[in-house]
Amino acid sequence: MATDAFEDIVETFEFLDDWEDRYAHVIDMGKAMEPLDEALKVPATKVEGCASQVWLVPHVESGEFSFRGDSDAMIVRGLIAILGALYNGVPVAEVPKIDARAEFARLGLEENLSAQRSNGLRAMIERIRHSAA
Amino acid sequence: MTFDIVKVRADFPILTREVNGKPLVYLDNGASAQKPQVVIDAITQAYSHEYSNVHRGLHYLSNLATEKYEAVRGTIARFLGVSDERQIVMNSGTTEGINTVAYGWAMPRMEAGDEIILSVMEHHANIVPWHFLRERLGVKLVWVDVDANGDLDPDKVLGAITDRTRLIAVTHLSNVLGTVVDVKSICDGARERGVPVLVDGSQAAVHMPVNVEEIGCDFYAITGHKLYGPSGSGAIYIHRDRMAEMQPFMGGGDMIREVSKDAVTYNDPPMKFEAGTPGIVQMIGLGVALDYMMGLGMENIAAHERHLRDYARDRLDGLNWLNVQGRSVGKAAIFSFTLEGAAHAHDISTILDKKGVAVRAGQHCTGPLMEHLGLAATCRASFGLYNTTEEVDALVDALELCHKLLA
After folding, report:
1. Domains of chain B and CATH, by start
2. Which GO terms describe its biological process (chain B) (predicted)?
3. Measuring CA to CA, which residue among B360, B39, B366, B86 is closest to residue B224?
4. At CB < 8 Å, which residues of chain A contact B?
5. I need a surface site. Which of A21, A50, A97, B44 has the fewest CB within 10 A?
6. Cβ atoms within 10 A of the Cβ of A91, count?
7. A52 and B406: CB-CB below 8 Å?
8. Looking at this predicted complex, what is its ipTM?
């Protein structure tokens, strides 16, 4: 079991039959996600190797991991929102144990984590695991 | 002959496959084109029955491979309207071709303050080698803008010539805007001023008949993988006078006559500029691809693509939330666009891909043009000889879905 927030998303996706509906939902999640403060969009938070621009700001407090992220591409924003559900509030020690690809496969979105996709999701996960190490 | 699109499509086996459960609609030809069966067969044939190194062996297979490989030089010359094939240097593509000129011709003869004129819509392959000269020698890059339609005025290019201008490097056809540049007028004017012209023909040679002797340029670079040939194949036409001025760029086997501990003498041009074992089979494949194109007829290909362009322009113009970049009247069937409402090119291409439509999203290796247009990125649908009006419809349908989901 992943976080409650992620399990909620899994439940929603179970009702979405085709990819159009799934992507529409990802886009909606992207639109709903709180944008990152412009002041935080700096080289240090930028995740390189992405076709679109992606930023990630990790935070660890009382042994609990969280991050905020953003992108100029809406689908990527939606995927970041899903990553947030997967990782936010997780004990730091648990972060490396999360199999993000397997969890995304439960949503039918695992292709977004393939090595050749340049949307930056993999690079973000690397950054998350690194910042929780 | 007539251009039978059904028959042409049947020549390209990959076009029958599906992507994401949808028939493939391949509109990324500007990046790289698919290969006809004759090219695939030629590669298999070469490796299965006719392969050896070229130029040096005295045995049967080496002679056979050399004959096949060297025949391609003549095919390229014919394709480009060059009467003397010794002015064709075979290489891995335009990037190598332009670097050969930058290192072998430009670098030895330029100094700080000399100027190279470039259009703002050049591909990075026709920019970065000149940046090397700027960085290393202090050469100045002089940029000429395109107008609001994406047209490049030859007089503006010629007007930028000063007594320090040593080269004009310009594309024949923009990979982003589709603009066809009047390179003949540029060459005519430049010749009067004694300024050599390099033309990047990577895109143009794919879409229209090209005759470099009519154009009158000094250098004309082409790249095989866009010409329905193998990746890692290409060529550059170099006028014999410029070739005589050139130093070899890369040293190695094949380009020498004799090598001793203290001295080296070089092979005659063009071999002098072809160091090392070349892409033998790639070049043989390119020869077959060019024969295939000439067999269809470059005029026929151009007419078919004009038809696609007109149809696509009308259909895309019907989408009032789509901004197409480049309105040049005689443009090629290359459409770069953005979607109103700030949808990212990445979002659009992701959704198009789910519909089986392959386009390119990003800067298309044209940083200065994107800066000029004030855009971070665009999507680009670039058509080739096997595309159809039905595929334009598939693109428009997929774009309507993008608009529905993203706007």
Report:
1. 5-30+297-406 (3.90.1150.10), 41-295 (3.40.640.10)
2. cysteine metabolic process
3. B39
4. 19-20, 23-24, 27, 51-52, 71-76, 119
5. A97
6. 12
7. no
8. 0.83
